[in-house]
Amino acid sequence: MKADQPVDPLAWLDAEWADWTAQGLERRLTPRRPHGRESSLLDFSSNDYLGLSDDSRVIDAAIEATRRFGTGARASALVSGWTEEHEALAADLAAFEGVETVALAPTGYAANLGAIASVVGSGDAVYVDRLNHACLMDGVRLSGAALRVVPHNDVTRLAEILTRDEGRYRRRLIAVDGVFSMDGDLAPLPKVCALAERHGAMTLVDEAHGTGLFGRGGRGAREYWDVMERVTITVGTLSKALGTLGGFVAGERRLVRYVVQRAGPLVYSTALPPACAAAARAALAIVQAEPERRIKVFALAERLRHEARRAGWVVPESLGPIVPILVGEADATMRLAQELKTKGVVVGAIRPPTVPRGTARLRVSLSARHSIEAVDRLIETLRQAAIPKIGALQEPNQRRTT
Ligand code: PMP
Known about the structure:
Blueprint: H1 11-22, E1 42-44, H2 56-69, H3 77-81, H4 84-97, E2 101-105, H5 108-119, E3 125-129, H6 134-143, E4 146-150, H7 155-164, E5 172-177, H8 189-199, E6 202-206, H9 221-224, E7 233-237, E8 247-251, H10 253-262, H11 264-267, H12 274-289, H13 292-310, E9 322-328, H14 330-342, E10 345-350, E11 360-365, H15 372-384
Parallel strand pairs: 1-10, 3-4, 3-5, 5-6, 6-7
Antiparallel strand pairs: 2-8, 7-8, 9-11, 10-11
Helix pairs in contact: 2-12, 4-12, 5-6, 5-10, 7-8, 13-15
The protein binds 4'-deoxy-4'-aminopyridoxal-5'-phosphate.
């Protein structure tokens, strides 16, 4: 290679990008309009399950904290980013979760990454469900532990792998989503906990889609299954039902204090903005004071599941506000989402690599902010839409997760 011929260091990217777009995988950023100016569009694409992201009490708490502490935390938590707002939120979350203490993280993603990478490392193993969220998988990679992938919700297989691995690893962790983000179903936590106890493994449950929704008190999948005390590490997000941004790691004091010191994504990232801590705290109070919100969103979701099936759509079994409507091919899913949009209904179109090939779907997420009329409008638009033929659907367990 001649020195005077500059080589484009990004030349490889053109072919990669061409391949990506040729597969119809390009996603675009489209600015959402501010609250109150959303014309007549009905939005079923957010994770704001309880409608708290624009609740005036939550907004006021965020504004007040911003006035007191400024817009950013200014430093990582261990340096000087930890404020009274963080302290108060951590205390409230610990009480809510029924744990000794809670660490806060800038996002739920960072919380999972940090929790996993601080409790396991090289020589250890993490058993993950194939459909776990990407950040649990990434956490295992970051940790250097062996990644042992188990078919979706297959506790028999999990038992077999745990038994076969006996004595091979130093520490073992079973990490699952409490509620699976793209399918809306729950991990069978009592069986998972029993296996962990039998094999002396730790458990980590990601409550990102459970907090505020499942269980009598809205504590998530662990409360729903009555295993609150049996889970070693609980990870949560402030960014879904709690309506703001941030994550947390909850558990025994000896665990959490270690995570706070050792988790890179917590130690080396700026603490979450005080406004987010204050907003989450206000939202958490509403979760506890207004259980009718979660009751409503569950009822709306049941109505949609029932009616969509009656209209001929494939709606897998799930519980709670995430309602997947299987379409199959990515293109057909995009066309359907576009058709709904022209009728004023916005739903998430989920394609590979977020879900495996052949399982592209609409991911409808219900919120307590929706009215029955709004859900009925969605049902009506689904009734009118042509149902694409689902191609050879892959078995859920062959799905690739990202
Ligand atoms: N876990 C699960 C199961 C999720 O779905 C998500 C967000 N999509 C996260 C963790 C990450 O949370 P956050 O958005 O707060 O980073």
